[in-house]
Amino acid sequence: xxxxxxxxxxxxxxxxxxxxxxxxxxxxxxxxxxxxxxxxxxxxxxxxxxxxxxxxxxxxxxxxxxxxxxxxxxxxxxxxxxxxxxxxxxxxxxxxxxxxxxxxxxxxxxxxxxxxxxxxxxxxxxxxxxxxxxxxxxxxxxxxxxxxxxxxxxxxxxxxxxxxxxxxxxxxxxxxxxxxxxxxxxxxxxxxxxxxxxxxxxxxxxxxxxxxxxxxxxxxxxxxxxxxxxxxxxxxxxxxxxxxxxxxxxxxxxxxxxxxxxxxxxxxxxxxxxxxxxxxxxxxxxxxxxxxxxxxxxxxxxxxxxxxxxxxxxxxxxxxxxxxxxxxxxxxxxxxxxxxxxxxxxxxxxxxxxxxxxxxxxxxxxxxxxxxxxxxxxxxxxxxxxxxxxxxxxxxxxxxxxxxxxxxxxxxxxxxxxxxxxxxxxxxxxxxxxxxxxxxxxxxxxxxxxxxxxxxxxxxxxxxxxxxxxxxxxxxxxxxxxxxxxxxxxxxxxxxxxxxxxxxxxxxxxxxxxxxxxxxxxxxxxxxxxxxxxxxxxxxxxxx
Length: 544
Ligand code: ADQ
Prior knowledge:
With 544 residues, the chain is an alpha/beta fold. The chain has 17 helices and 17 strands. The strands form three sheets. A nine-stranded mixed β-sheet has the order 5-4-1-6-7-8-11-10-9. Strands 14-13-12-15-16-17 form a six-stranded parallel β-sheet, sandwiched between helices. The structure holds adenosine-5'-diphosphate-glucose.
């Protein structure tokens, strides 16, 4: 299969349906001028603000969206609306940035109910294929609605101050925001990007507020995902769960009862490859590499780097290492496995349970396989690392184990191949087929992490690969990532939002003109065709 390509809907029209309010012919002139995607201000709305306290005061957070948007924040006006994380005294901006930072403060109850509750104990597991059981609490949902309203209010104020801005809403924490913005600003270009997977419709259907969540996201002009399968699942959820409110699906376009069209696209996120190449060549990284090379001399180093999250397959990875050492006694002193785990969400009980499980497995494996007088086979760091140290681990690792049970994209995989290539390395990468990255990094060694015995055989196979085969694979993957870096992703997203806003808005105006020119009273929303689809099950089948 070829790597997935970004797919922007062509904006084809949906079937004709009645509209709530026929438009006047003069409304054609009211189709607003769309912002220029390459120049216009951007109002980003994301759960967290992209800054953190550093040694010399406030600084941009490393990694992720903050890095991706850094060039945009430097060159264009605009704003970033996000939770202050409980920090006080945040600056209104940072030197060198034109973007204003608009902090949202949350109460203790909101942090518990909106953030730890609905976002991380309801939506996170639900959208990750319900791999842990999602919890549904009405109080959490109410808090999620309240906090989304607060974010939307701050974003609306920012948009009023920023003529011609693009609104760009991020992730599952803020699914209701696009609709809240749309209700107040019908012509506003709005994009929504989901950073995590979207499950099959029958899984998503479990959430009692499924229609509100879908309609919330559909306030955007374009809803984007990392991978085609998530986009497809979302479109199928709209088709089966929103038919009874008059929403129709036409290919990859969702048509709302007022004829507004929402595009859905696949836009895999990436990393700032230049920054990782710079890190690979940094003197601090080189010093760390020298130390690590000494530490693991004579052994192949296997590496895992993840947030400590139950989606990342850390336990399955440990069980595979255990199976390998069980089967291949000769490898017990020749292989070391290092797991770096960033502490994550320890206010959620499933995460505390996971940490205990991971640490229990590591203790058992080391107890079983450590040879007297030798180093332990499994090393474990439970902390966040400075970027140079992380880059050094990527550089010295002979094998990267990226084995999530499910993962929207997985940036670690892209970081590893980039650093390896920059250091002329020949490491190998085992990559779960249940990551978004697996659609792009086709030269990785694929694995099914649910099959721990099979995973251990993949590791054994990778250990036996020739250096030239490994180097060829790393080179191919690094080149792909360099050609599809995060700056390309940002530019593409902003262009997609303005293009979809133009197409969707025009289609709505055209439909309303047609309705206005036809005799007879306006019909109510919800066409007969859609009513006849009422009662469909989430998988598209009819109820009996
Ligand atoms: P995450 O689930 O956090 O992101 P991932 O994409 O792997 O997953 O990003 C993790 C980031 O944290 C990487 O940039 C990595 O370098 C960094 N990191 C990991 N361990 C670290 C450590 N010990 N110290 C410092 N940094 C560390 C969510 C989705 C993903 C999606 C991203 C982006 O779950 O599927 O790829 O958003 O959309």
